């Protein structure tokens, strides 16, 4: 198998993940410049990013269905590429959550979660860049642990944010709206964690 063919799927992991990074960058832009709510235009722009990610995924899966020789097991490629796409979906879900609940103002919670998600994405990108060298890499495990460490920050922020919400807010409608948004952020953090766990498992199986 030619080197170009061997590297194809590792490159598609990065390309697919770039849609997630584009989505989180746009979410950050929207929240940083928040002006009384999510507009139809903002919702539609995020959906276009997610739709493009889906189209890319479809092309990769079509190619994978015809492959007999791949650099790692087909099932591992399938799991990883689908879980990467789940990240983009989860980022869109955050913005949709803000839209359907008609969130009128943002808080420091959104800023903190987005910063964690951005850092987690940056660390995940390093993992995917190193992934092709998994059989001889001396740094891949440390890069994987970096993602997991950042995700733990998200877990701690989730717990403290929910606790603070119930300590400081009396309006049950407001509690529902904010809690739903916090859960959406937590789901996104978890989605990135699931990708790095899938990579770690693939490394152990294919080494």
SSE topology sketch:
Elements: H1 3-32, H2 40-64, H3 74-100, H4 108-130, H5 140-168, H6 172-206
Helix pairs in contact: 1-2, 1-3, 1-4, 2-3, 3-6, 4-5, 4-6, 5-6
What do these coordinates show?
With 207 residues, this protein is mainly alpha-helical. The protein has one domain (3-206): Up-down Bundle (Methane Monooxygenase Hydroxylase, Chain G, domain 1). The protein has six helices and no strands. Helix 1 runs antiparallel to helix 4, helix 3 (74-100) runs antiparallel to helix 6 (172-206) and helix 4 (108-130) packs antiparallel against helix 5. It is globular, with a radius of gyration of 18 Å. The two termini are 18 Å apart. The model has no long low-confidence stretch (mean pLDDT 93).
Largest sheet: none
Give me the CATH fold name: Methane Monooxygenase Hydroxylase, Chain G, domain 1
Number of domains: 1
End-to-end separation in angstroms reads 18 Å
Give the helix tally. Answer: 6
Structural class estimated from helices and strands: mainly alpha
What tags apply to this protein structure?
Methane Monooxygenase Hydroxylase, Chain G, domain 1, mainly alpha, 207 residues
Summarize the structure.
With 207 residues, the protein is mainly α. It has helices spanning 3-32, 40-64, 74-100, 108-130, 140-168, 172-206.
